[in-house]
Amino acid sequence: MQHLDLQVIERALAWARDGETVWLCTVLATYGSSPRAPGSLLAVRGDGRHVGSLSGGCVEEDFLARLAEGEFDTPITTFRYGGGGNESDGVDGTGVALPCGGILDVLVERLVPDAETLVHLEVLLATLQGRRALARRVELDSGARHFVEDDGLGPRVIRDTERGAVQIRLTPAARLVIAGLSPVAEACARFALGLGFEVIVCDPREEVLAGFDVPGVEIEPVLPSVFIAAGGCHGATAVVALTHDPRIDDLAMIEAVRTPAFYIGVMGSRRTSEARAERLRRSGGLNADEIARLHMPIGLDLGSKTPAEIALAVMADIVRVQRGRPRDAL
């Protein structure tokens, strides 16, 4: 299991390479309560096979039924679930009400399996893998689409009503790099998969890796610091060191602060963290700003004792930072 958007584009590209027409659906906007955020993706084949999500299931069911009846045969369609159509924004209403009471605007692109589609999906995939920051601009009248440079900051979808276009920001799939295995690290990996993270475990110890079995996790049998230094982190990456072994944890921190990772944390008590900060300053050459980037002790203070409880505290803190919430706002 990988970040859902990444999984959607990987599957859509595989289908297109097999000669299948793909309907790529994107949530353009939400109003009120809604289960999925703008930018969320669903890819569907003509036979109904699909991956991704637009809602809790009701939208997907309606879309698949309409597709089976021959609808969505044009390059571009926009429609609304949960409210009537609004001529001012060019969105047709479906008459389907969402159980949550919200409203969902959806863009549907019919992608035929030609060379242009393959290139477009390949660029999309590379962007979600963290290789480049881009936005995807789609002209709603013609169906023309192209990529533009973007810093990845701001709302996922921008609607240009004057020019009849939408611009969809592409951000790398959220990634969790786990520096070294431990019972807490294993629990963290399971939580992160459920939260939609791409999870990578780095540990050079063969005997430790031999006992690790969490389907969906990528294993890198190298020192975490080596993987990180080789470009393993992008701006949507969280790095956590959870072994209590400074030979693994400290080296990972030294390399991680040189990357754009949005969260870098290491496990230990306050006393251990103070000693680590001094060690990283003295032996690792980290300055005050670099040390300030480190979340240590890692995680929210939930009074956690067991590995699962500590992992919950760690992942909750990562999500907090990911969503831009200060600790004192909790």
From TrEMBL:
Residues 176-318 form the XdhC Rossmann domain. InterPro entries: MoCofactor_Util/Proc, NAD(P)-bd_dom_sf, XdhC_CoxI, XdhC_Rossmann_dom. Pfam families: XdhC_C, XdhC_CoxI. Residues 15-69 form the XdhC- CoxI domain. SUPFAM superfamilies: NAD(P)-binding Rossmann-fold domains (SSF51735). This is XshC-Cox1 family protein. It comes from Halomonas heilongjiangensis.
